[in-house]
Every structure is written in structure tokens, then in C-alpha cells.
């Protein structure tokens, strides 16, 4: 499967150099090279050990592959590479205990191949490595009773660490039916030293999709999806049977998602509880009621949190979340004092995320400090000495002084809907200077698109002189149920109007030249780019699509898309429309069916192995566009899927996009 490479001195030297404190580059009139935006991050993630005395770092090596390194923090030492491959990337890492880690590796390719991924355990010094899960069949029986080789096969994945001082982790397995559709998810406990497996899935309800464990690692709540309905189950401490405590339609009935089990019988859930945005609420599994008052909520934003939990009691110590920018909220007074001290020590305007192992007791915190113009710098805060020192940067080659400023706005769509909008302003551009603009549409579409963090694509476009508009159009999640609900069955309709309304708003504010606007996006954003000149003629001078949906009908019929049958049956008819119902008029909002209405040049790119939106979409659309006389530039990346995995391909696309925008928007339009 993987070709392991040795731990050599130049790898360590390269990593140490990438993490060293650099000197800011002088501001230059020339834009930064394309590669500055497409180059993989020097530090792509950090995970601190339970005691806070060691740090696991994901970083890229000379061969372009992501590797795992560990460095001591007390005192700060040089990072040592303990996991790396010639043909695969380390994608995630978790501490099992203070000495042992689990990491996952994946061959970054457009297809999932047998033998193309695995999960390993290794000691912090690189010794004691063991393969735990391999994406190929290596056992006769996966229940643990007749294991021929103590390696779990494809289908199993890491679930969570336990942090009880032992060497066990939780793993889960997705079980499919005879049609290949997900049936349920099983949970087990796996020893990382001898690979002994212990099942925890006895009495599993049908359709189980998610497990919630208490602070002792005991399964206490489940969520299931059966027949288009969500079900929630509860189990008492030490119990053997699951009790159904909720059953609801996720699209039309109030419900909740269990998040944490605290103590014996206290449950905290994510819910709306009669409001519009999600927050954290207490849930009583005996009365089956959600408290009407939230524990935590954010006005105007759904709370999607990452929690810091006391390792012994399970009590919430703090939350990390994003409103218009990343934020942290600490319930523990001592931790709140640490946060305030770190914020005061680092540059104003930064979001400073604290990473800690056992937060309630650790002496060391790793801080990621970032902003709209800073991709991220890493610092070590020593709680004993109240000292802070820099240990690295995510992208040390990015000149913070040359990056564009980002701003957040709420604007009114034509029907009065309040729409969030993020704007990236080119460095040095006056606020009242009308600039050529790019409407950058996020994919999904039913996800949250952006916030005020440094954004690779938006900053690249801003570096080329464009003011970049990123609308959180109706249907986007993260801004309340009403905003999400307003996008149902609005592909090509009100969702498209929202994009045009962001252009009108920016023009009225004097931010953009409305005669020089291009619409750009990928996946759903690619669909919106193709549909833009059709739904809003005269608004856009050009459109660029990567991996865009061109034929909505094909989404329901393609037999090699990775969209599940459950999604086609239950979600898509609600969110997009039912192709069998004439009233939904699905075909009328397919760019393929209306390509002759496009009067602007197009750039259409696609991955040859895309399984989410098969390349058939683009090929059929391009053929129809050429027949209709539409100017279209075509590019296919046959070794890519639904997104870029190879930096060289991303660089090529950005260069093509840069030239396409320059050609299309260089001159003002004729009156």
C-alpha cells in the first residue's frame, strides 16, 4: 500500500526551517505569486498531548506529502518526523495517551482504492508502530472472534480517544445493505498495542448514524435515520437497552441533536427550542423535554461548537465556535484568564484559539493566532511563567501586509431577507474606489460558506485587484432556520437573485464597478456561475465554473454519483425539487437546458474522476454551449475528483482563471 520513507535529517531541517520565526517581506507593488496561495501549508494542524508537554504537528515534506512530527514543549525542542510516506498523506492525528498516538493516512487520489488508506498507532518517539485498520479485506470475521490477522479491514474508522491512561481507542464501522446503502454504524473498543477488539454495539437500533459517549467512554445516546425520520435513543448508566426519546422529521418538525452527556443523567443538546438559530440546551431524558432557555446561543448565528471538556467529570470548560469570526467562550474562570492574557499579548484584531490536552490541569497551551490577513501563527503559552513564544506559522511565505482586508455585512435582498455577505478588499484599495469584482459562490449549497478568516481563493483574487463578494445566499446554513428554509426549491431562482442583489448593494456602496463583474464558483458554486448569466442577464461579464452541476436531472439519475439513495429520496426533493412533479420545474433551472441564453464568455473546468458531480455534466454542457455559439474555454483535470488534491493542478486552474478574468474584465463595458 504505502511506500514508507526513512526519517532523514533534511526532513527535520526543512520542518524546523518552516516553523522558524521569519522576517516579514517588504511590501511590493507586484502581486504575490500564484504558488503562494496554492502551496500546501507548512503547518496544517496541531494536536497537543493530554499533559500539554508534547505537540503533534501535521506538515508537508519535500516530496509534497503531509507527514506527522512530534516536538517537546517543556522545553521546546526540534520536531521529529515519526510518520510519513512517499505516496500518501497523513490526514489526522489523535493522542491515545501521553506516549502513544493514532494517525490516519490516505493516498490523495480521485478514487478510494483498496489499500489506499490505513490507520496506524505509534509511540511519540517513532517506536512501536502498528497498523490498526487497512482499507482491504484481511480478516475472516470483523467481530473479533476469528481474527486471522489483527488488522481491521476497510469500513472501520477512528471514532475517538478515551484518555483513561490506557491504550484503547473507539472505532466505528459503517455497515451497508445489499444495495450498498448505509444501514447503520457500529462502535467498538480497540487496543492499539495488541489490536484486541471489543464490540459495544449490542442491541443497536436500526439506522444508527451517530454515537454520543459520556466522560467514562460509555455509549449513552444514539441518533438514527429511518424512513426519512430522525430518532434519538438514550441508555442509562450501565444499562443494556436503548430507549427512544425523540422521533421527528428533520425538515418539518422541531428536534435536537445530542451533543454531550454530563454526569449520570444530564444531557446537553443542540436545538432551536422554538427560536430560529441553534444553541446548546439541557435535555431531560426522563421527561423528554428540552429546556426553553439556552445555555449558550449567538444572536444571528447557529452555534456550531467544538467543546473543551473536563477529562474527569465531563463538565464543559469552554467552547470554540464561529460567529462572523472564530471565537472562544470559557466557563472556567482560570481558563478565561488565560484567554484574556493571551489576547492581550498578541496583536490586536487576532482570533486566538487555545489548544490544550487536559485543559483543567495543563501548564502549557498552544495558541493559533489568525485574522483576515494572517493565515495563522502558532505560539506556546507557559502558564507557570506567564510567558509566550512563537513556534511556527501555517504559511510563513504569506506577507500579512499585502493581504486584503475582509469585512462582514448584512444586506437586504429584494424580498427583504437579511443576507450575510463577506467582502475582501484588495490591499491599498480605497473604500470608495469602484473596482472590478468577482462574486465567489460557495459550494454545498446547504452549508456555511465563510467567515472573516484568511481565505485562500478570495485573497488570491483580491491580490489581482478584484473586490471579492462572498454572499451567504438563502439556503446557506449557519444563520438560522429561516435563512436555510428560504432556499428550499430555490436553485436558479431566489438563491440566484441573492447573488445579483449582492452586486447591486456593492455598486450602490461605491465598492465595485457594476459593468465589470464575473461570477465564479465550484460544485454548487459552479452551478450558480453557469446559471448566473441566464437568471440575471446583464449583471455578469463572465462566468467560471469548476465541478459545477449543469444538469439537475442527472443528479437524480446518474448511477455512479456518490450521492446516496436516501439523499435522492428524502433530501433532494425537499431542498432542490422533485423531478417527477411538474410544479417543481426542476429542468427549467438546469443550465444545460438554457445554455443558448448565455451571452458572456465561460471558463468550465472539471475533474475527470469526480463522483459527486460526474464530468458528464460539463461535457454535455460544453457540447451544447459550442453548438449554441457560446464562447467557452474548457479544461479537464483527469487526475482530479470533486476538488483539487494536487497543488500543480490548483495552480494551473488559478492561472487560467487569472487570465480569463483579465481578458473578460480588463476594459469597461460600452455604454
What does this structure look like?
With 671 residues, the protein is of the alpha+beta class. The protein folds into 2 domains: 9-393, 7 Propeller (Methylamine Dehydrogenase, Chain H), CATH 2.130.10; 404-665, 3-Layer(aba) Sandwich (Rossmann fold). Strand 9 (156-161) and strand 10 form a beta hairpin. The longest helix has 19 residues, at 647-665. The radius of gyration is 25 Å and the shape is globular. It starts with 8 loop residues before the first helix and ends in a 6-residue tail after the last helix.
Q: How many structural domains can be distinguished in the coordinates?
A: 2
CATH class (first level) name of the largest domain: Mainly Beta
Give the strand tally. Answer: 35
- Give the integer mean of the pLDDT values: 89
Please tally the helical runs, counting DSSP H or I stretches of 4 or more residues.
11
Query: Structural class per helix/strand content?
Result: alpha+beta
CATH fold-level topology of the largest domain? Methylamine Dehydrogenase, Chain H
Which spans have pLDDT < 50 for at least 5 consecutive residues? 1-28, 137-148
Summarize the amount of helix as a percent range.
Answer: 10-25%
Shape call: globular
Biggest sheet, open or closed, and with what strands and sense? 8 strands, mixed
- How many angstroms does the end-to-end distance come to? 61 Å
State the CATH superfamily name of the largest domain.
Answer: Prolyl oligopeptidase, N-terminal domain
Read across the widest sheet, the strand sequence of neighbours is 28-29-31-30-32-33-34-35
CATH architectural name of the largest domain: 7 Propeller
Query: How large, in whole angstroms, is the Cα Rg?
Result: 25 Å
Could you tell me the strand content as a percent range? 25-35%
Amino acid at each position: 500500500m504505502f511506500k514508507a520513507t526513512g526519517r532523514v535529517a533534511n526532513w527535520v531541517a526543512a520542518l524546523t526551517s518552516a516553523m522558524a520565526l521569519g522576517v516579514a517581506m517588504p511590501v511590493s507593488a507586484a502581486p504575490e505569486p500564484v504558488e503562494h496561495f496554492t502551496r500546501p501549508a507548512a503547518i496544517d494542524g496541531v494536536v497537543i498531548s493530554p499533559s500539554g508537554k508534547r505537540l503533534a504537528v501535521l506538515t508537508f515534506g519535500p516530496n509534497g506529502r503531509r507527514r506527522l512530527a512530534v516536538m517537546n514543549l517543556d522545553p521546546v525542542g526540534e520536531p521529529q518526523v515519526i510518520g510519513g510516506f512517499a505516496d500518501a498523506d497523513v490526514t489526522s492525528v489523535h493522542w491515545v495517551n501521553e506516549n502513544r498516538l493514532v494517525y490516519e493516512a490516505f493516498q490523495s487520489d480521485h478514487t478510494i482504492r483498496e489499500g489506499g488508506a490505513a490507520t496506524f498507532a505509534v509511540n511519540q518517539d517513532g517506536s512501536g508502530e502498528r497498523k490498526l485498520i487497512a482499507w482491504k479485506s484481511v480478516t475472516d470475521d470483523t467481530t473479533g472472534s476469528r481474527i486471522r490477522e489483527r488488522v481491521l479491514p476497510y469500513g472501520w474508522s477512528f471514532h475517538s480517544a478515551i484518555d483513561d491512561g490506557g491504550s484503547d481507542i473507539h472505532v466505528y464501522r459503517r455497515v451497508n445493505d445489499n444495495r450498498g446503502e448505509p444501514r447503520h454504524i457500529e462502535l467498538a473498543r480497540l487496543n492499539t498495542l495488541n489490536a484486541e477488539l471489543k464490540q459495544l454495539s449490542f442491541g443497536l437500533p436500526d439506522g444508527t448514524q451517530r454515537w454520543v459517549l459520556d466522560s467514562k467512554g460509555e455509549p449513552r445516546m444514539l441518533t438514527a435515520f429511518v424512513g426519512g425520520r430522525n430518532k434519538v435513543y438514550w441508555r442509562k448508566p450501565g444499562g443494556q437497552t436503548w430507549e427512544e426519546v425523540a422521533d421527528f422529521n428533520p425538515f418539518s418538525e422541531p428536534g435536537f441533536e445530542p451533543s454531550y452527556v454530563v454526569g449520570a443523567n444530564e444531557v446537553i443538546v443542540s436545538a432551536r427550542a422554538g427560536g430560529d438559530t441553534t444553541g446548546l440546551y439541557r435535555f431531560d431524558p426522563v421527561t423528554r423535554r428540552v429546556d426553553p432557555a439556552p445555555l449558550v446561543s449567538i444572536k444571528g448565528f447557529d452555534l456550531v461548537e467544538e467543546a473543551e471538556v473536563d477529562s474527569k467529570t465531563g463538565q464543559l470548560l469552554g467552547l470554540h465556535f464561529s460567529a462572523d469570526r472564530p471565537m472562544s467562550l470559557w466557563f472556567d474562570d482560570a481558563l478565561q484568564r488565560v484567554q484574556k492574557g493571551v489576547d492581550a499579548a498578541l496583536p490586536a484584531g487576532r482570533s486566538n484559539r487555545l489548544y490544550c490536552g487536559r485543559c483543567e490541569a495543563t501548564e502549557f497551551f498552544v495558541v493559533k493566532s489568525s485574522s483576515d490577513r494572517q493565515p495563522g501563527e502558532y505560539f506556546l503559552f507557559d502558564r507557570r511563567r506567564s510567558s509566550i513564544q512563537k513556534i511556527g506559522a501555517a504559511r510563513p511565505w504569506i506577507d500579512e501586509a499585502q493581504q486584503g482586508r475582509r469585512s462582514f455585512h448584512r444586506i437586504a435582498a429584494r424580498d427583504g431577507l437579511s443576507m450575510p455577505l463577506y467582502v475582501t478588499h484588495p490591499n491599498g484599495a480605497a473604500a470608495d474606489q469602484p473596482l472590478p469584482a468577482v462574486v465567489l459562490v460557495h459550494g454545498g449549497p446547504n452549508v456555511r460558506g465563510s467567515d472573516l478568516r484568511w481565505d485562500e481563493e478570495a485573497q488570491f483574487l483580491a491580490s489581482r485587484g478584484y473586490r471579492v463578494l462572498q454572499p451567504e445566499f438563502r439556503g446557506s446554513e449557519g444563520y438560522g432556520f429561516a435563512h436555510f428554509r428560504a432556499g428550499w426549491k430555490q436553485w436558479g431562482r431566489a438563491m440566484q437573485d441573492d447573488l445579483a442583489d449582492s452586486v447591486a448593494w456593492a455598486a450602490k456602496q461605491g465598492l465595485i464597478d457594476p459593468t465589470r463583474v464575473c461570477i465564479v464558483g465550484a460544485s454548487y458554486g459552479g452551478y450558480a456561475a453557469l446559471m448566473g448569466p441566464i437568471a440575471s442577464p446583464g449583471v455578469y461579464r463572465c462566468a467560471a465554473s469548476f465541478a459545477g452541476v449543469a444538469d439537475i436531472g442527472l443528479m437524480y439519475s446518474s448511477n455512479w454519483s456518490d450521492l446516496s439513495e436516501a439523499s435522492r429520496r428524502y433530501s433532494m426533493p425537499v431542498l432542490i425539487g422533485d423531478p417527477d412533479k411538474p410544479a417543481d420545474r426542476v429542468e427549467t433551472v438546469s443550465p444545460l437546458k438554457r445554455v443558448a441564453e448565455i451571452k458572456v464568455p465561460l471558463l468550465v473546468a472539471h475533474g475527470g474522476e469526480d463522483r459527486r458531480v460526474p464530468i458528464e455534466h460539463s461535457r454535455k454542457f460544453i457540447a451544447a454551449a459550442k453548438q449554441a455559439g457560446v464562447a467557452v474555454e474548457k479544461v479537464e483535470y483527469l487526475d482530479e475528483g470533486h476538488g483539487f488534491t494536487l497543488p500543480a493542478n490548483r495552480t494551473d486552474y488559478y492561472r487560467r482563471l487569472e487570465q480569463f478574468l483579465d481578458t473578460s474584465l480588463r476594459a469597461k463595458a460600452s455604454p
